[in-house]
Every structure is written in structure tokens, then in C-alpha cells.
Amino acid sequence: MSDQIPMRVAVVGATGFQGGAVARLLAERGQRVRTLTRTAEADRPPLPGTSFVGGDLADLPAVRQLMRGATHACVVMPLVYGTEQVRRYARNVADAAREAGIQRLVYNSNTRIPERSTNVAAFETRRIAEEELRASGVPLVVLRPPVYLDNLFSPWNGPALVSEGVLAYPLPGDTSAAWISHRDLAEAVFAALTVDGVEGETFDIGGGESLTGDELASAFATGLGRDVRYLSLPPTVFEQALSQVAGPEAAAGVAGIYHYMATGTDPLLMAGDGGRSADALAVKPAPVDEWVTRQPWQVWSTEAS
């Protein structure tokens, strides 16, 4: 569909990790990209080919300016978990997209969402956003990713992986997860924007296979060429560490996902979908060991420091 004619894409969240990956891929492929930010120019991540509109999702005129003239849009919500705040953000996006005549909107929920309602804000606020966007009448595709490989290439994981062979993450060791990279998420978003016949669909996107903690460690061992063991990190420890960087409210919201997974209530929530999304979107996520091999792990080496 839109791969023949350049799109004009409004990207909500392009100054973050997932939205940034989407904006970069779109620009690489010759699409025109515009995003919304209050971040000062000097502090913005490098996003060649992307123009900026000042404002945030609470500012309806700014959201309208973002959408004006766009043909397509993709959205990921910021790390806020207040019900009414997220509802307001989603309604502003929905109203502006409808007014602008957006041809297709792709919503990245940033997490899988259980079928039944929970008391977990990270799930329920994203469910609310999805409902608001769907009610707008704008043609919608919803992507629900599991967990990101890029979370493991970080100051919290990299040094221990490189120096000690320890892969620590706040998922139970026996939980199967279809880990996906930000780049493969971006590929899925591009496909959801352009592939015919997927409007109205919801996809539990993910990597090529579901891996338990030990299987994930084995894939990392192959990619790193050294022994790696998986350590199931208590969600409370993860939340405390994240709060130092993101603040207590955002940390509590993100950690709510892992507290939920630790209960064992829905052990397959983060698992693969049997290839449905890969087939429908014609995407092929990279195997975990290949992704590992491509990362510059030496930046976490004590020798490099």
C-alpha cells in the first residue's frame, strides 16, 4: 500500500526508545516524519529526517498541529499510568487524527494486555488508550509487544553479562517470552502502516520463538561466546532500581507488569502467537543469538572503562 508513495507520519513517542526506533526506520525508508516533544533541542536524541512540534499529549492544539497534513500515525504512550491522564492523552490523539483524516493509525501498547481486567495500571491504562483510539473511527492496527531485548543492553545488565555471565531480569525463570528488539518492533510498525488487509486487527507481536529464562541465557551464551546463566530478579528490586532513573511513579507502573507475571496468573501472556503476526505482517524478527552478536557489548567491559 503506502510503500509506493511516501507517507507523512506523525510519530507519538519518537524521543523515546521504541518510538525513536520507529522514527529512524521510517526516515531511512524515505518517509516524512514529524513528532511531538517538549525536550530542548540540545537534549533530543538524534533523529535525522524528523521534524518537531513543540508540546505534549495534554496539549490538544499541539497534537492537532502534529497530525495536520499527516497521512499516517503511530503512537506509544509515555510512561504515565494515571487513568484519566492516559484517557485524555488518547482522546486528544483520537480527535486530532480523525480531524486530520489519518488513513491508518498504529498503536503500540508497549506491553501485552491480559484478556480479563486486572488491577495493574500498566495493562489497564493501555487498554483504555486502545479503546479510545478504536472508538475514534480512524482505521487502527494495534500491536502488543512482549518484552524488549534492548532492556538487556543497559547499564543494569551489560556489565554483569560481560564480566560475570549473569543475565538478570524480573521474569520468573520458567516464563516463556517472545523477546523482540526495538528494531524488529519498528519493522512491525512499518508493516502495520503499509500492509493491506490488517486494519482493525490486534497483533501480539514478538520474536521468532518463546524462550524461558534458561533458554534465553543459552541464546545469549551463543551470541556472546561465553557461559551465561539466568537470574530471576525480584520485581521489587527491579522497581527500586528503576525508580532512581525514571522516578517512583513510572517505576511502579512499569514494575506492575513484572509483579503480575510473578504471580503466575497468566504464564503465557508474553509468549509467541504461533506465527500469526509474523505471517500477517510479513515480518521475520531476528533470532535472539543473532541480535546478541550484533550488539557492542564491549562498552560494558571493565577493560573498556
Automatic annotation (TrEMBL):
<dbReference type="InterPro" id="IPR051164">
    <property type="entry name" value="NmrA-like_oxidored"/>
</dbReference>
<feature type="domain" description="NmrA-like">
    <location>
        <begin position="8"/>
        <end position="242"/>
    </location>
</feature>
<protein>
    <recommendedName>
        <fullName>NmrA-like domain-containing protein</fullName>
    </recommendedName>
</protein>
<dbReference type="Pfam" id="PF05368">
    <property type="entry name" value="NmrA"/>
</dbReference>
<dbReference type="InterPro" id="IPR036291">
    <property type="entry name" value="NAD(P)-bd_dom_sf"/>
</dbReference>
<dbReference type="InterPro" id="IPR008030">
    <property type="entry name" value="NmrA-like"/>
</dbReference>
<keyword id="KW-0521">NADP</keyword>
<comment type="similarity">
    <text>Belongs to the NmrA-type oxidoreductase family.</text>
</comment>
